[in-house]
Structures are given as structure tokens and as C-alpha cells.
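Write out the 3D structure for:
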Amino acid sequence: MACEMELETGSSAVEKQISETKTRETECESQQPSSDKPAILPQVAGTAAGALAQLGIGIIGGFSGVMLPQLTDVGARDIVLDEHQVALFSSLVYLGAAVGCLVWTLPMAWMGQRWSMLVHLPVFLAASLALAFAPSVWLLQTSRFLLGVSGGVIEAASYSYVTELAHSRVRGKLVGTADTMWHLGVLIVYILGSTGLSWRKTALICGCVTTIPVGVGLLLLPNSPRWLATRGRMDECKESLAFFRGAQYDCSSEMEAIISQTKDDDDDGGRMLQQIRRMKEPQTLKIFGLLAFLMFSVQFTGNIVVVSYVVPIFNAAKVNISSYMSAIVIATVRIMATVFSLSVVDRLGRRPALITAFLLCSGSLFLLGTFFFLQKKGVSMGKVSWFPVLMMVVHAFMSGVGHPVLNLVRGELLPTAVRNAAHSLLFFIFFCGMFAVSHSYPATVSTLGEEGAFWVYGGVCLVIVAAVVFFIPETRGKVLENITEQEQDVGDYKTRL
């Protein structure tokens, strides 16, 4: 009897031990990543902060388009700008953005995208307040320049931040969201301008709304995991990657790819001088050269011209339409286009989207130019006076599709080890192109006519299509580091570049 009791007791102990072991194993398994899909909400949170920053950039870009009538009204009891001052007011933002991207190149690599935005958001807010309360023309112009400086840094940093935190499965949609918010900012300021709200109140409202919420959001988010890796802060890199992918996702392979590309960095590898030295490597230099060409030439595809000169273009085409309504229509179409781009870029692929978008942009510009040519030759165009409106809507839609994809490809092709330096330099080139085309359009029209200008822009679209066909690889669904490794292994791509 005693033996049986001891046996039962021993059996009970063994069963209890087995049960405890299974419980511990279950707990351990529950702590391990078990999902093959990354969490979306943390990535959306990071994207929201970066994209909301783009809202302010869109607002300052479209501000002059609807507020210049107030600023040139000689009957107004406020600041009145002459023709020369109007040109400066419209263009100083782009000049400031180019300067900001260039000057902030070194600090960007040192402090990263997140802190670059956090530093410049207060500058952006202060410049908006200075614009709203400017007592003189010189302070008005200075505030526009400072808005461009801070806005250029914020735009470059936000694109890079979203690109680096996004998983390859959703990167196209998330990066495209930033472009949508940019166009939404343009639409918002167009609508405010159409309501008759003063330019001072508009500047005040937009400055506060587009900076304070973004700053609060960024304070609650971690730095980009890839920037942390370039600084050698691998523990923080793992924590950041785990935050953006979720606790249940196994991000070890992505972490290995990041470490592999940054393993040769020294302790100060994130500094800009180190990144610039890396950019001198033949393969990286070729990629940068290609992207620099695209960033500059894409400004001459009619995108900025249509936005900046939509009313003079309609007037030259003898189309009777409200200037404010036309601006709102174009801005709305662009938002629709960027939303459409989000839905197709990860399905259709980068190359097909770019080729289709810029081919149709080219066709609409050539047809618009032909309309002006026939009109100048004395052909009656009254029955098809709607045609320029249709062509500009088509162009606006396809530009809204193509530009976000091109921005996405720019971030994907750049190696992690040089992305911060390259982004700043590319945005400097980007804004220089924007400044050049906005100033050259009147001279181009006076020399070649409207038809010649649009034919030139249509030709540039075809050049971009050729560059995509021959030089741009497909990057859909690939980890950022694997894209770079692929480029290093493809000999044909090197030769063609």
C-alpha cells in the first residue's frame, strides 16, 4: 500500500513537471515572432508624421498661386507688391529650399531625418508667423525664403524617413502618401484663397496646423532603423525595426541585410564625409548621376508650369473658366492621381507605372501644343475650346501618378550607407530645376510660343521614358539593401549607365 502511494506521488510529480515544462515552452513560443506579415499600424504612424509634414510644403508651394491677387491689389490697405517683387515672392521659396537642402546635408547625416524635421518645424512655424505679421516687403520676402529653407529640409527628411521605415510590401503605398499630402496642401490653400480669407490669416492658420501636430507625433516615434545602423547604433536599430514591424514579426533577415551593408562603417560612419566618400564608388556614383538627371529634368515635364501658370495658360487658350475653380480642379485631380498611384504602384510595378504615366504626359503636352499652334495659324477652335482643359486634366492626373513613383524609386535605388547625403544633394538639384523652369517659362513662351514650350516639355517626358526603359530596374517588393546588391551584380546595368 505504501509502495502504491509512493508510486502515485512520484507519478504526480512527474506529470506536474511535464505540465510546467509545457507551460514554459508555450510561454516561450508565444514570445517568439509568429507572424509572416509585419504590423501595419506602427508604419502608418511613422508615415503619418512624415506625410503631414508634406502638407505644409504643399501649402507654401500653392500659397502664391491664390494669394498674389491680394498682394498686388493697389486698392488694398496692406502690402502691395510690384512686378519684380511678385517674381521674388513666387520663386524665393524654391531658392530657399535648394539652399536648405545643400546647407543641411552634413547635419542631416549627423542627426538623422527625424531630428532634422524636429529642428526645422519650429523654424517653419516662426517663418509662417513672420509672414502673417510682416510689416514690410523685405520681411515678407525673407519669411518666404526661410519657409523654403526649412521646407526643403523637411521635405527631403520626410521622404527619406518614410522610405526607410516602410516594409517592402507596403513601401509604395506609404511613400506615395507623402505625395498625396503635398497635393492636399496645395488644394487646402487654393480653397482658403477662394473663400476670400486674407493672406495673413491663411499663413497663420496653415503655419500652426502643419507644424504643431507633426512635432508632437515625431517626438513619440523612434529614429529610422537604417539611419541608426549607419551610426553604428545597432541595439537601437533593432529596437526601431521591431517597433515598425511589430513584436510578432521576425525581422532578422531584414536586420541582417542592414548590417551587411553597414558592417564596414567605422564608429563615425554616419557622418556626411563618410557618406560622400562612399558616393565616389563607381556604382553608387552612376546611380546618383542617373537620379540627379531625372530629378532635374522631371521639372521640365510641365508639372510646375501647369500649377504655377494655369490661369495665363487658360487665358491664352481663350477658355472661359474661373481662375480659382481651375486651380481647385487641377489640385483635386492631382490628389485623385496620387491616391490611384498608391493602389497600383505595388501591383503594377515601378517601371510600367513610370513608362505609362510619362508617355501619356507627353501625349497630352504635344496635343496641347498642337492646339495652340492651330489657334495661332488662324484655325477656328471655338467648338473645341474645352480641349485645353481636358489635356491639362490628363496631364495633371498622369503627373500625379508618375511623380510619386519616381520619388519612390529614388529612395529605393540609393544605398543605405549614402541615402542621407544623396537625398539632400538630390533635393538641391530638384529645387534648382523647379526654380529654373518657373523662371524660364515666360521667356520660353516669348521665344517659341505656347506651342513650342509644350512641345519641348513633351519631348522631355519622352527622354524620361527612355531613361526608365534602359536604366531603371524593377524594385517592387524588394528589401532596400537587396536592391543595391542586385545592382552591383548586374553587369549590363553598369555598362548601360
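Residues 419-471 form the longest helix (53 residues).
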